[in-house]
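Hey,

Quick one before I head out. I ran the complex with zinc ion overnight. Inputs first:
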Amino acid sequence: MPEESVIAQVTQVLSRRDDITIHYDPPATGPVPGHFRPIEDVALHDDLRRVLRREIRDGFFRHQALAIEQILAGRNTVVATQTSSGKSLIYSVPVFDALLQEEDACALFIYPQKALANDQLSKLRVMARQLKVLSNRMDSRPHLISRYDGSTPHGVRNDVRAEVQVALTNPDMLHLSILQHHDPKWARFFEHLRYVIIDECHEYRGIFGTNVAYVLRRLRQICDIHGSSPTFVATSATIRDPREHLEKLTGLEFCEIGADEDGSIQGRKKFWMLSGRDHFYDLGRKIALDLAKKGLSVLAFCPSRLAAERMMARVLSSKDDQLPFVKVYRAGLSPQEREAIEAGLRDKSVRLVFSTSALELGIDIGALDVVVCVGFPSSMMSLWQRAGRVARAGKEGGIVLIPADTPIDSYYAAHPDELFGKDHELLALNLNNRRVVYCHYACAVSEVGGVDDRLRLKILGEAISTVAELRATGSLNDDIFYRSDPHSEVNIRSMGEGSYSLDCGSEKVGEIDDFHLLREAYRNAIYRHGGVGYRVKDVIKGKKIVRLEREYSWNETSPVIQKRIRLKRRNSVADYSQLAIATVEMDVTEFIVTVTEKDRSGNVVRQWQGSAGMPAHTLPTVATQVLIRKELWRDVVLKLGDRQARCALASCERLLSSLFPTVSGPCDTQDFSSFSEVLKDGNAALYLYDNVYDGVDLTTGAFGKVQVLVEKALDRLATCACSEDAGCFRCIANPRIDEATSKEATAQLLQMLRDAMMAEPPRITEQSENSVSVLAPDEIATCPTCSVNIAKGDRFCKNCGHKLI
Amino acid sequence: MTTSEPWESIRHRYQDAWIRVTRITRLEEKWLGRIEMDAETAWTLGTDNIGLFVGDCRSLGRTIDMIRPLHRATPRCQWVIVAATKKMAAVLIQRWFREDLLSRVATTTLKLPQVYSNLVLATPESLRRIENSDVRSLGGILIIDMQCHIHKARQGIRRGRFYVPNDRPQLIADFRSRMTIGEWAPPVVFMTQKRAKALNTDPVRRAYCLDGWWFADGQSLRCGPRRRHYINDLVYRNESNAGAAGGAV
Ligand SMILES: [Zn+2]
Ligand SMILES: [Zn+2]
């Protein structure tokens, strides 16, 4: 049977459905032939050349050769070419060259996820086996190339440390273990460290990235202590200005090999964007299954873990036969389960995988035929990462995009050109995040023997130097500086006040951070974990413990959370006569006002008033504020009436916040949040804020883009297909809260905002960024009635009962 | 102040203020002034989810004497009295409801809840047997826990092979949630022999699902109608005897 092209098969499957609307059907692109350079062009050890000649017959791709030359010349290099352009070869070659040239040379590979390290480890070992010298060395030292992370058994860690020359780890382990015990356990390794490889460095953004930036500075300090100065090599997905990102991330100068140098082969590739009458989950599932039944290998990206599980369950329940070729891939699978799926995809025994974004990263699952995105990815970066899963090595591939029922996906469905023409995003990092700087300062001090004066401030950077100055004057005395093991206080993936332990009797069920505590494990909540139900009996703030008891009912609980804003500082301000836009520093305090328990059919069983003893949660953060001055707000109220005006403000907030990713860098909906209120002084205000302690400068990026956002919000309202004035989930209806909404009123408010901004150019004042004030300590709050000290999160004074929040 | 439906309903219940007490700070026991349980106070306590912690109550006998007039409050305002134990409930019936110092009430045959005028007496365990129709105009929940023990009993009991969950403060919190109207839940008045400063009051607060405490001096507690239509003799005598506790409204 002659093989039909993938694109033709997808077209056929889609044309057989009469219930779909195709929003975007651009012509296929590619294939793109490769640009090669002979292996001999690059000065490498002879043994390595011999192996490469066997492995890559056509020679290096142009960008590979260029990058390797830079790296061999000792320049820090970031490679930001397309997925499947052979990036891992770029860093493997110089590392193996160094291992062959120098007997003691070491290299450190840093991966954002364990699964990636695993994938890479076996490849590196296979390659080393082909080099006789290294193969012999590996026989006598089996841990020569080895992982060193949380899943390395304690029994072999000593051997690994003694033998390893190529260590694969993650930032967590680097922070917690390797840097902390550099002397003497890792002294040999750091002394001979030649290369530091940072793979998938676009993952280091937001709070995680900010932490990693300081982990890497601490790494550089340790290298300096041991007398080495390794070359840094980073690989990245296509982002805007990868060089700038890396320079921020490491504090070093970088040279960049980007799209212009890319010489890789790309297959023919085609996009479709479509929606249907069915719910987008159902449509995605049906199309994916149809394609898989045709024999194509399909990867379906789902919006969440829960969605992936649900779609899988639907597929299984709708058919009599077992469909062994369908699987779910998500975080939390055991390595064996994961490997089985990966292998199945390679040998085609698995042809349909429902996946979360976990598979966006570069884990090798071979070339797939079709990617179905059920709901759009949250950024251009992940769109291209997903698309890179198909059309590898010159094969054909298709990408089917199905918009979710959300304002942002609906917006892009109406403006597909904007989605595809969008610039790559800049990644958010905030090196002045106070909490992060404090913590890493403390870690850095403990790594140089506990003496502040020994810090290499030039390497550690400006913010750490500022903290050093403040410490020298005695004005910074936070607990963290006096901890014997500051390292364990720092969770580099999510920065908060440390997480709560979920305890059922003497058994520890799990952990939860403050933010989720208020949403999932509040007092009286029914909390489900791994299929088991628990009831929250107590939340002990001082001890960071949530006490659970087994719960056997099928009821569900949900909280209503209220927010309060306290402004601390305004930085940049764009002043109009009727409104003002500003970047601000502020505290967002959240507390529960009611908890409702419903039975399976949705009847209210119980309702607890107040926070039921839960502490409030205060998030110090940064935001963009839109202040509607009272004159304008009065006009809005006159026009719409008080109730309508307030509803319109809430809808407006929802629209602006859900469309925010169209003007920002890559972010998940969890990264930011919004709030609006009518103030006591008659003004109204709307905030977009970072959902991260002390902020990462994500939402402050909206400062110059409010007008664009307002235009997009108006566009969404005008083009939404719903006929009712109350709107739908694709425009202003809120799927979580049942509240009155009006498209008409919301549009009027948005128009008034737009007119106010268009009427005149703003007067812009910039507060110069003063890192000393940003990094200075918090003042201690006291009760206005009885003047005892107040702990964070107290809603009432514990001494006199005065209402604080 | 609001004009919502729950507020109207609370105002109707609290046409008179029957409980008065002096508010203090927990640590220094500094006086913060006299408060009376009128509609506004009940509204604040009920919507902000604050409990009234009345510490330093003397003996159970003295406490009964102090709150005795409560059953003469107008039937518009009902109170649920939660006794820490069945034994205490028996004493309350004997010395308060029956005003009989001689005939003992047997705990074995004691049926709870018991309704007496505008009061409903129960233990945490018998709260669930109170019908909603019995407490149509509930003004508040008065917990009498002289030793301050109830909040610790959260684990349940093991009867042979069976584990009977019995979370006593939760039973009270659940009853209170059942009595909620709109954003208002009936206020909790917590009476104990212990002084607030001698206790860690925070776990007690959390156990009852409260968000804060107003602390009060038990010896300053007065019960009964406002003085201007004051007729009762016994209470009057008591009050003038205890004079030093001071500053009746
Ligand atoms: Zn709509
Ligand atoms: Zn106070």
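Residues A 720, 722, 727-728, 730-731 surround zinc ion (ligand 1) (CB under 6 Å).

Talk tomorrow,
K.
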